[in-house]
Specification:
Layout (H helix, E strand, L loop, with lengths): L5 E7 L7 H7 L7 E8 L7 H8 L4 E5 L2 H9 L1
C-alpha cells in the first residue's frame, strides 16, 4: 500500500522449468508487482534460458556468476 518495490532474488545453479504457471497466478494477475532477479551460479552452466526467462518475464534482470571474482561485479550492478 505504500508503493514500495517488491523483489524476489533467486540464486540457483540451474532450473529445469520456468514456473510460468506460478508467475501467471500470483504475479501477472496482480499487474507484475513483484520483480524477479535471478543469479545463475557456476562456470559450467550452459543452458540459462529458463532462469533468464523468469527474470525477463517479471521485470527483473538475469545475472550469470561464473566465478567468485564475478560476485562483486554482478551484485553491485
Amino acid at each position: 500500500s505504500c508503493g514500495c518495490n517488491k523483489v524476489i532474488m533467486l540464486i540457483t545453479d540451474g532450473a529445469s522449468e520456468n514456473a510460468e504457471e506460478v508467475f501467471r497466478k500470483y504475479n501477472w494477475q496482480n499487474g507484475r508487482k513483484v520483480r524477479v532477479f535471478t543469479f545463475l551460479i557456476g562456470r559450467d552452466q550452459t543452458d540459462h534460458r529458463q532462469v533468464e526467462w523468469m527474470a525477463c518475464a517479471n521485470d527483473g534482470k538475469f545475472f550469470h556468476v561464473a566465478t567468485i571474482a564475478d560476485v562483486n561485479e554482478h551484485v553491485h550492478e
